[in-house]
């Protein structure tokens, strides 16, 4: 989904009915283990929750059990979506984590640009080497074909063979 680190003890709970508040959400999830925190972010304009919330368990195993059992279940007539939560993101900055300033990824951006430039240079060198190897191979194949043609012309020419045989007989 995104490149963020999953918070394995915090669950996202989506599809909440308007009647559900933090107390009801706490009551629905407490059977799975001790709960550290329950949040239902409010819409600034209406001051009502935005149909989702977060439940943070003390233990990861409890969060996993709650997710397995509550995902797809019904609460106040609405089907819940329960997943592991991702850290809050803010606009700006490549990684986008709220705990980092926008400029925090400037060094990694510069390093990545240098790495990409080096990769392009290496690819160009490799392409040139492959083209040179191809040229040498084709030249070698052409030389071998010319040698085969000379052998074929001598072997296929009966007059040349007869002359060679006659010269051999005279020499003996």
TrEMBL record:
Residues in the signal sequence: none
UniProt keyword annotation of Ubl conjugation present: no
Biased amino acid composition, Low complexity: 155-166
InterPro entries: Nucleotide-bd_a/b_plait_sf, PPIE_RRM, RBD_domain_sf, RRM_dom
TM regions (residue ranges): none
Region (Disordered): 140-172
Annotated PROSITE patterns: RRM (PS50102)
GO MF annotations in UniProt: RNA binding
One Pfam family this sequence matches: RRM_1
Gene3D superfamilies according to UniProt: 3.30.70.330
Domain RRM: start-end pairs: 9-87
Matching SMART domains: RRM
Coiled coil: 112-139
Annotated keywords: Coiled coil, RNA-binding
Protein name: RRM domain-containing protein
Source species: Rhynchospora pubera
């Amino acid at each position: 989904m995104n490149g963020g680190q999953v918070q394995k003890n915090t669950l996202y709970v989506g599809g909440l009915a308007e009647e559900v508040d933090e107390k009801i959400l706490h009551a629905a999830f407490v059977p799975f283990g001790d709960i550290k925190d329950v949040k239902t972010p409010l819409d600034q304009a209406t001051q009502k929750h935005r149909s989702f919330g977060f439940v943070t368990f003390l233990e990861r195993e409890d969060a996993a059990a709650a997710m397995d059992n509550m995902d797809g279940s019904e609460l106040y007539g609405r089907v819940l979506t329960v997943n592991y939560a991702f850290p809050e993101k803010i606009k700006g900055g490549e990684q986008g984590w709220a705990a980092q300033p926008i400029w925090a990824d400037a060094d990694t951006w510069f390093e990545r640009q240098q790495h990409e430039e080096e990769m392009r240079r290496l690819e160009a060198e490799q392409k040139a080497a492959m083209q040179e190897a191809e040229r040498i191979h084709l030249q070698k194949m052409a030389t071998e074909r010319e040698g085969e043609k000379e052998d074929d012309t001598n072997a296929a020419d009966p007059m040349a063979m007869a002359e060679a045989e006659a010269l051999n007989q005279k020499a003996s």
